Amino acid sequence: MKFVSHPNIVKLKEVIDDTESHKVYVIMEYCVNGPVHIHGDPPLPMEKVRRYGNNILAGLQHLHAQYLFHWDIKPANCLVDAEDVAKIADFGACGHSSRGRSFGGTPAYSCPEQFAGAHVTGDVADSWAFAMTLYQMSHGTLAYSVTCIGNLRDSLLDPTPLPIRKDLEPELHDLLSQMLDKDVSKRLMLNEAVQHPYFAESLGQPPTSESPNELCGASIEDLYARAQEAVLRGKRVGQYFHGVPSIRRMRQMMVRDIATCEAEDMDDTLVDGFELTSMESNPRFVANPADEEEVREIVNSFLQDSTREMVRIEDIFMPSMHPFIADTAASLVKLCLTNNRLFTMEGVDFSKFQHLRTLYVTKNALKFFPVEVIAAPQLTYLDLSYNSIVDVPTALSEARMLRTLCLNHNQIRHVGGDENGMSVFSGPSMQKVLLSANPLAHLPAEIVTCPAVELTVDDAPSLLEEWYTMVNCTTYVNIRWNDIYPCRVYPEVPLFVASKSVKLYNLTMLEALDVRNVVLLQFKSWIPVGEVEAGDMEMHLQALQRGVAKSVANDGNSISQMRSTRRTVVCNGEMFPVPQIFSKSVTRFLHSYFVMDEEPADQASVYNALRNYLTTRLSRKESVVVFVDERKASQMTRDTIVAVLCEVLTEAMGSEVTLGCCLNDVVDAIRGIYV
């Protein structure tokens, strides 16, 4: 919290750790006038309710923009200074995560979902508590009894709306009724309350929704200094940035898409004898170019039915841009092209799209960056994720209005600079560039020339090393690390630990670490248990996929429908997607797999088998990565893995590491499981 600075947040001056008395002293900014309201006191004047509410809302907007959530907003935690400005205080429950909690904060200001036992996110909890704070300031008390937790629970779970004074200002009455709606799907949240007329008519402008990039300011240098120190201690950079939760949310979306997205290598199929592509299974998908007229009719119907401000074309075979898309140029604001096998954007003059602001070209077959779209004069958001783009052109800096560029899941290995020594991301409006899931060999060239741009990349060891050297020699660079790469417990032992979903890992990451052996859980019944050579795993999957292809063919389906079965297997009559960790390119790169049974008959036999496997592979100087997905593994399985890792690593390190120290290092590497 020392790095959070805002006029509506109480400043943390200093934290003193008295090791002798085992006490921690927290020195905060002094707010002489105390809480904004005390429960039971008369209601505040309406002018003060509005002003204090505006102050608190501005402070919450700032916290949320930095991915921080208070979790205990109430009048007692909103203090008034000598200038009669309300400031948020008491961050004991605050956290840099929006991950759901079943309960937290003060019960009287907790939302109905928390009393129902549901897991709610920080923004939902803060939004309800803020509305209850407004309610108390304007009513003098809360709407229900707070003397009995049972009565409080019954009041909040009763669908009857909370009573609101009819003599309130109409705007405040409307705001409270919307923000205190007991149906969370209909409830007005903080980001929407900012634009409500109640705050729009306040003394100043309504609180503005700020982005983390706009808020970091000078404090980002302090954060980077702390991160550098952490790297020297062997810690992970991701633990020192508030943006990590948003990366995790993005990663969850990646997991949902990974089963059907474009593979890294176009021939990455385990089935011999069939020409399979990356077409998704969808009844509207037209895979035969001879049906182009039918496609034209379908797309034209999309255009006719749309408002002409947004056009969305999904799962329609369209390898190139059809001229009829240009018919929407006069009014189009948003264009979404998804899963069309589109390999070029040529044929349409984007300079005529005078109002186009948002463009998605995702899950397509682009191999080159579509420079044509840069001509759209008002383009601010460009998403080219899930293509096969290999390079970023210098012409990108000519995009005058482009703010956000998403290039996740492409084949970009190098990003250069222009002839003037400037980064290709140095456009005048550029704010955010996302490059996760690309085989980057180096950080983008000349990235120091655009310090205002927030760059998101995976935490590959080579990139972290470059970054550390860079920030020690130059001004800071604004990088958000996607902490996805496995962690090496000790530099002397080629043993890595990965605590994210195995579905996120691909050949690029394994090649970067030169990992040839993997340990993972049997998360699906079709995966064989025990030690399996990579070649045998490939043959096993080929046999399962042949069954899929034969089943489709026997049903009389076309080759286009066979394509939709790409990277799926059949087991016990059910179809399952095949994660990239089992793709043909990966099985041919790896030496072996070790698959752990989640419910073994004899836990000791699993322990011994895993220990022998790791010991044998390490004795051959082969690297191993152990996947421990905290959402999949049981407590017993995780404890078994940790115990084996400690035994193997202690033996490998000899007298240099004690068992206790090794346990701490292993637990630190398996982030998020035990903490």
Could you walk me through the main structural features you see in this protein, from its secondary elements to its overall organization?
With 675 residues, this protein is of the alpha/beta class. The chain has 3 domains: 12-210, Transferase(Phosphotransferase), domain 1 (Orthogonal Bundle); 289-483, Leucine-rich repeat, LRR (right-handed beta-alpha superhelix), CATH 3.80.10.10; 488-669, Protein-Tyrosine Phosphatase, Chain A, CATH 3.90.190. Helix content is 32%, strand content 12%. It is built from 19 helices and 20 strands. The chain has helices at residues 46-65, 112-115, 122-139, 149-157, 170-179, 190-193, 197-200, 212-215, 219-232, 244-258, 292-305, 461-473, 507-513, 534-554, 559-563, 584-587, 603-619, 635-653, 659-669; strands at 12-18, 23-28, 78-80, 86-88, 310-314, 334-338, 358-362, 381-383, 404-406, 432-434, 454-458, 479-482, 487-488, 495-498, 517-521, 530-533, 568-571, 574-577, 592-596, 624-627. The strands form 5 sheets. An 8-stranded parallel beta sheet has the order 5-6-7-8-9-10-11-12. A 6-stranded mixed beta sheet has the order 13-14-20-15-19-16. The protein has a two-stranded antiparallel sheet with strand order 1-2. Helix 1 runs antiparallel to helix 3 (122-139), helix 17 (603-619) runs parallel beside helix 18 and helix 18 (635-653) crosses helix 19 (659-669). It is globular and about 75 Å long. The chain starts with 11 loop residues before the first strand and ends in a 6-residue tail after the last helix. The relative contact order is 0.07. Mean pLDDT is 79; it is low at 203-292, 303-307 and 556-565.
